[in-house]
């Protein structure tokens, strides 16, 4: 079995790791990018045990790579021999909405991490795939980006901006063999959301989300809500009249 | 985070201070935090223990399910080392395509390695392979003083044997190294044989000793001439065929807890009669290991069928000399009561030295069944069964238990005094609190 070559940006994220396991099971060669070397090494060892043909760690501060985006990307692509079949952009922070409202520096930091830096990675990665003539770019956005809400509009704006950016890229590459998939997950039971009250039918496991991403990528989709029912929920939320929406504390 | 947690029996929802470390390196600091906050802690895996052994009311619960990374698999020797939160379901995905299978598996694949060690789980092959603990080569045990103890049969052996079957009380099992068994295929060769009386079970078990796996399902409602009728099932790994971690079929689920128990006298009688008479009750052929080992895993949250009051599971083992007599007596009492479950399991254990100080399996016959919780009536029936088990010199399985009297536990587990020396002072469970509170007539080992 020959697997794909895959770059994971934010490989310690729960969803990214589950996606990497699916790829490892098919014999992929992976580059795992992130800040925490020990965690990345633990994940790499696990992926090798699960059948990966390779799993290399790239220590990078993804929100602000010291070498710059282009050089950092080139280094990762080199680890894969210059050939990159798939890129998953999975890093992000939930961020403290109240802190961002009170402090412009914090607000800018959240936007930089979740949107500006992410769009920079999409840019260098897309250019690479374009030169190759094919490949799949997957960006994890959020249902929070579908309509600004008081509880998390800084996060929502960043993820919404990222989704719009990826959508534009999908348009740019329409008709080519470069694919751009925007993923819009709802609530996922991960360490990132441990501060929220969990349980109930709206919560999904990272395994489920990763499997949805994998399936959507294989189909060549440009947008996927995961789990699927969020498409309906967000359609309602987007279309709620302001008079009703403004009375909701969401 | 404060959170209500239930065990598999759904008997009670219990508040805990819960922490779920994502990486093994986070476990030790979180362990300290939980102990500082609440005074005690217990590790918790996938919550498949039935009673109060996986709970620590008001205390800390360190949930291990996110610590599920494999460190290394040696595909030449079949040695696997992984975080304690790796489930057998995930382990199969890693090992089965390469021709390795866990040496001992319980009746669900949704257990963690840590849980399998802490309960020293057994399977249908006890008579040839012993229990899970017999295949543990080493484990890393985090004590509440912060030390990580490398335990193996030849290193810190006392703590190793206390931890196997030690109900999580000796510390946090961080990683486990196990020996797998080689398999040629994920298929099983299976024979199902109907038997019309419990006596025949003992004959079939004796005739089936060269089959690595054997177990029987029993109709707990049949009485008189057909007391303990059932289906004897035996199997072995097929010598050829595909190596698939999962069979190809969709899963069912019980999405919600129904307002009342769906298991009652009427539905049970209908099920048992149908199950006994079904064509598959006499069968010889092949199937994927999933259907053979994990028939209930096909229905997610099957425990919900017992309704909001939950259920008790009763699992005992009685020594060989008393087995026929004691099992017949137990089945007669259960049949007369008209309660009990669809899944009554009878199995002969082999004569294998126990892997741990508190290991449940011992030479003899084990009987396991569920009882819908009908309050006092159910407790009284189980107290009746206790008398037969105690008189036969048997014991009950703590992983299944929510009500055994402390003196029955003490009588059944003579090594408990030795075990107590190895308990970590910060580790506690509701089961252990119950065993310690009540007056015990502990035999000094």
Automatic annotation (TrEMBL), chain A:
GO cellular component: membrane
Domain of life where this protein originates: Bacteria
InterPro entries: NAD(P)-bd_dom_sf, Sc_DH/Rdtase_CS, SDR_fam
KW Oxidoreductase (keyword) present: yes
Entry's Gene Ontology molecular function annotations: oxidoreductase activity
Keywords tagged on the record: Oxidoreductase
CDD domains the record matches: SDR_c
Pfam families: adh_short
Oxidoreductase keyword on record: yes
Family: Belongs to the short-chain dehydrogenases/reductases (SDR) family.
Protein name (database record): Short-subunit dehydrogenase
Source species of the chain: Nitrospirillum amazonense
TrEMBL record, chain B:
Molecular-function GO terms, alphabetical: FAD binding; L-gulono-1,4-lactone dehydrogenase activity; oxidoreductase activity, acting on the CH-OH group of donors, oxygen as acceptor
SUPFAM superfamilies assigned to the protein according to its UniProt record, in alphabetical order: FAD-binding/transporter-associated domain-like
Keyword field: FAD, Flavoprotein
Domain FAD-binding PCMH-type: 11-183
InterPro entries: FAD-bd_PCMH, FAD-bd_PCMH-like_sf, FAD-bd_PCMH_sub2, FAD_lactone_oxidase-like, Oxid_FAD_bind_N
Keyword field contains Chloroplast: no
Name of this protein: FAD/FMN-containing dehydrogenase
């Amino acid at each position: 079995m020959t697997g794909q070559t895959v770059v994971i940006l934010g490989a310690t994220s729960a969803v990214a790791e589950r996606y990497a396991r699916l790829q490892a099971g098919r014999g992929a060669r992976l580059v795992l990018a992130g800040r925490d070397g020990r965690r990345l090494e633990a994940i790499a060892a696990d992926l090798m045990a699960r059948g990966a043909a390779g799993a290399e760690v790239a220590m990078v501060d993804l929100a602000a790579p010291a070498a710059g985006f282009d050089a950092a990307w080139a280094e990762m692509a080199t680890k894969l021999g210059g050939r990159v079949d798939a890129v998953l952009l999975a890093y992000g922070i939930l961020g403290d909405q109240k802190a961002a409202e009170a402090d412009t520096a914090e607000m800018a930091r959240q936007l930089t991490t979740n949107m500006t830096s992410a769009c920079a990675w999409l840019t260098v990665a897309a250019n690479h795939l374009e030169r190759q003539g094919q490949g799949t770019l997957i960006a994890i956005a959020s249902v929070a980006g579908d309509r600004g809400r008081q509880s998390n509009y800084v996060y929502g704006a960043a993820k919404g901006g990222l989704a719009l950016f990826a959508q534009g890229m999908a348009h740019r590459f329409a008709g080519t063999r470069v694919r751009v998939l925007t993923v819009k997950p709802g609530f996922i039971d991960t360490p990132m959301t441990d501060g929220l009250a969990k349980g109930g039918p709206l919560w999904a496991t990272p395994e489920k989300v990763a499997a949805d991403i994998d399936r959507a990528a294989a189909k060549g989709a440009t947008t996927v809500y995961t789990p699927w029912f969020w498409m309906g929920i967000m359609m309602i939320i987007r279309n709620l009249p302001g008079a009703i929406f403004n009375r909701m504390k969401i | 985070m404060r959170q209500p947690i239930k065990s598999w029996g759904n008997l009670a929802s219990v508040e805990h201070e819960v922490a779920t470390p994502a990486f093994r390196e986070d476990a030790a600091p979180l362990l300290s935090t939980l102990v500082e906050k609440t005074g005690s802690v217990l590790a918790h895996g996938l919550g498949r223990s039935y009673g109060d052994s996986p709970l620590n009311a008001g205390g800390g619960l360190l949930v291990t399910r996110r610590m599920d990374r494999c460190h290394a698999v040696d595909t030449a020797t079949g040695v696997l080392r992984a975080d304690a939160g790796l489930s057998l379901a995930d382990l199969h995905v890693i090992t089965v395509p390469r021709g390795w299978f866990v040496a001992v598996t319980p009746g669900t694949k949704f257990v963690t390695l840590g849980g399998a060690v802490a309960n020293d789980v057994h399977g249908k092959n006890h008579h040839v392979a012993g229990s899970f603990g017999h295949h543990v080569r080493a484990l890393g045990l985090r004590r509440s003083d912060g030390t990580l103890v490398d335990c193996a049969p030849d290193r810190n052996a006392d703590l190793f044997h206390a931890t196997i079957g030690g109900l999580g009380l000796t510390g946090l099992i961080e990683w486990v190294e196990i020996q797998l068994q080689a398999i040629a295929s994920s298929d099983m060769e299976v024979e199902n044989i109907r038997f019309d009386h419990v006596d025949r079970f003992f004959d079939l078990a004796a005739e089936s000793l060269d089959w690595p796996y054997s177990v029987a399902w029993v109709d707990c409602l049949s009485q008189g001439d057909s007391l303990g009728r059932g289906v004897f099932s035996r199997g072995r790994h097929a010598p050829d065929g595909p190596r698939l971690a999962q069979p190809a079929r969709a899963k069912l689920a019980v999405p919600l807890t129904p307002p009342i128990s769906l298991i009652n006298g009427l539905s049970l009688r209908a099920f048992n009669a149908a199950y006994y008479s079904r064509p598959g009750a006499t069968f010889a052929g092949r199937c994927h290991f999933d259907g053979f080992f994990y028939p209930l895993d096909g229905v997610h949250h099957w425990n919900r069928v017992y309704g909001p009051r939950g259920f008790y599971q009763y699992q005992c083992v009685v020594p060989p000399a008393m087995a026929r007599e004691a099992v017949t007596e137990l089945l007669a009492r259960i049949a007369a009561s008209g309660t009990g479950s669809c899944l009554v399991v009878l199995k002969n254990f082999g004569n294998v030295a126990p892997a741990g100080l508190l290991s449940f399996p011992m030479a003899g016959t084990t009987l396991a069944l569920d009882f819908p919780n009908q309050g006092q009536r159910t407790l009284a029936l189980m107290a009746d069964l206790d008398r037969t088990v105690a008189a036969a010199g048997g014991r009950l399985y703590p992983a299944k238990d929510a009500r055994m009297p402390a003196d029955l536990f003490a009588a059944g587990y003579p090594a408990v005094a030795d075990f107590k020396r190895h308990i970590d002072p910060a580790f506690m469970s509701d089961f252990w609190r119950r065993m310690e509170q009540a007056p015990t007539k502990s035999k000094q080992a």
